[in-house]
Amino acid sequence: MNCLLLALLLLPFCLSVAQSFCPSQCTCVYHGRSDGTGTRSVLCNDPDMSDIPVNVPVDTVKLRVEKTAVRRIPTEAFYYLSELRYLWVTYNAITSVDPGSFYNLKILHELRLDGNLISTFPWESLKEMPSLRTLDLHNNRLTSIPLEAAPYLTNISYLDISSNKLTTLSSDLMDIWPPFSGMPISTNTSQKIVLGLQDNPWFCDCRISKLIELSKMRDTPVVLMDHFLTCSGPENMSGVLFQRAELDQCVKPSIMTSATKITSPLGSNVLLRCDATGFPTPTLLWTNTNGTLINNTVVQESPGEGVRWSILSLHGILAKDAGEYCCKAKNVAGSAEAYITLSVAGVSTTTLSPQNPNKKSDLESGMTTPQGTGVPAFPVTTPSVAATKAPQTTLPTQPTKENLGPGGGVQRSPPAGDKPAKIQAKGSKSQVSDGKAKKKGSGGSDIKDVVVVEETGDTAVLLWNAEGLPSDTPLSVVYFPLDEEDAKESVEAEAGLGKLLLEYLQPSRGYTVCVFAKGTASSKEQCVDFSTLDTVADEGQNKFLMIASGIACAVALPLIVVLLYKILCLYCKGSSSRSSGPDDDPSKETYVKFETLTVKQRTMDGHANELWARRQTQESERLLLCSRSSIDSQMTYKSDSSRSEYLC
Q: Which helix (DSSP H) or strand (DSSP E) does residue 545 occupy?
């Protein structure tokens, strides 16, 4: 009893000591009032402090941890501070905040974490602070505010997320967050919400169209700290004020399919189509029953802004292709899904009597055997030839030509993964082709001797014998790699051709090819395995031939040029000789007729001016021939009466 009384006496003293204790790196101030009550505030600003202090007085109302080396706020860092109303952890080096850091702060009114290095904030931690009204996160490194943060921001009346790295806000966030959705903010209609959004690299597109419209409004319950917000992107909007920007609002995708249920016969080609609208233009994805993404046989096209359609092509469908296919449209505003169920017609269950177990031909030809009497029966899956009139979009049977040109009567297969260029939703041609295929579909067992010959690196020739079928019976040829049965390709042919050229194959790879009448199931006798050749040797030989051809061209080309030059010279010489003519006199061009003068003999009665006399033409020519040159031709005078002489 004495011990208990002593403990009761010492308890107030211990509590007072605990309350008055202050951490060594902090400063504690008690603000007393005249009525004997007061509040305590603690300031911790030691630059050497690296952890949040844990021995803070429990009656602290305001805690400030500023300009320290603290890098992390751990779980339940303020668990014992249940009286805390103001928490400032500002201008430190904090990079991470634990989701349970603010546990038990039920009456906290103001939380400031500005001036740190926080890139991701635990928004779910706000549910531990139901009385919180002020949240300051400016001057950090936040890059986004997720949609999950909206429910925890409903009580916040002051939110500062300025000077971060925010580029956009989710459209869904704006739809449910009261400042943007138009819903009442609180029961107090006069309350305003203060938002700090400035100094962020905003990317101005439809996702922030509501934010831009909000900046243009005057009488709103939202007050922006800075009304002069600017766009940083895209390039054509850089530097534009929010108040002058004009943007369209985002529109969530809406999707529509050509049919919800499709039934198609075994071995046929099926097209699944879906159309989507939205802004921005949505993207379309196809998945199968298992959720696996399908992209190898998909065609997409966008005829205009905000519209896109997609087609999934299934070639030579098998029983395993049946199931549910999902088309999903998605853009920045949201997503939508639509489903198409594909059923494979022609698979039914019948019973056969074991009295005729060797009747194999009946099973292969699609015939049913009557039930036995008093003998246990077992089920057998056989293809049915009943016509199916379900909504479907199938490819019509491709017509064949008698003259196939250089192929020599060999029908060629389309390229692997061939995609349709134009899609017609009308099913009249499809029903006609399907009816024709089903009419001839009972002759699957008449196709025999299926072999593959003349294999190369990318082609092979398929031969078959269909003596029991009419020549115009449509056949389905399905081939696929041995290790990729899902990547099958289907080609339509006629029984009368007897052969088909398979093209666009991969070198040095094994394939399986099956030939069966359209609308029937294939058997083992109608399938054959083959392998394409390795193209390494062919490539080496081709490279050698190319080198040899290049050397030959380099040697022969100069010889050809010289030969052409000689021929051209001879041609020009012959043309000049023909232009001169056979009747031309060479003397006319070679010789010139001229006259010479000589000194005339003087007489007693002669006139003084008559000193020269003309020679005869023959004599002038003789003198020209006798003279060696103009220098050698010299005239001498012996006397006044002597005649002129020339040295010859």
A: helix 536-580
pLDDT attached to residue 97: 95
Give the separation between CA 152 and CA 266, rounded to whole angstroms.
Answer: 55
DSSP H helices, 384-495, are 428-439
User: Is the pTM higher than 0.85?
Assistant: no
Most confident of 1-5, 251-255, 368-372: 251-255
Distance (Å, rounded) from C-alpha 409 to C-alpha 432? Answer: 26
In this structure, are residues 134 and 112 in contact, taking their beta carbons and an 8 Å threshold? yes
pLDDT by residue (tens digit) across 429-449?
333 334 443 343 444 457 888
d(CA 594, CA 427): 106
- What is the phi/psi pair of residue 558, to 5°? -60, -40
Cβ(210)–Cβ(249) below 8 Å? yes
> Rounded distance, CA 535 to CA 548, Å?
20
pLDDT for position 396: 39
- Contacts of 7 by beta carbon, 8 Å cutoff, 6+ apart: none
Cα 74 → chain centroid: 44
Q: Other C-beta atoms within 10 Å of 40: how many?
A: 21
Which tokens sit at 288? 């199968």
Is a pLDDT exceeding 60 seen at residue 88?
yes
Between the alpha carbon of residue 384 and those of residues 390, 442, 490, the distances in Å are 15, 9, 20
Q: In 10 A of CB 490, how many CB atoms?
A: 22
Name the more confident of 498 and 125. 125
The pLDDT-based confidence of 41 (bands split at 50, 70, 90) is very high
Across-strand partners of 544? none
Highest mean pLDDT among 132-141, 374-383, 561-570, 639-648: 132-141
CA distance 552 to 550: 5
What does the chain come to in residues?
Answer: 648
Averaged confidence pLDDT in the chain: 74
Token digits for 12? Answer: 């107030």
Q: What angle do CA 115, 118, 120 make, to 5 degrees?
A: 150
Q: Phi, psi (5° rounding) for residue 578?
A: -70, -30
Q: Alpha-carbon Rg of the chain, whole angstroms?
A: 52
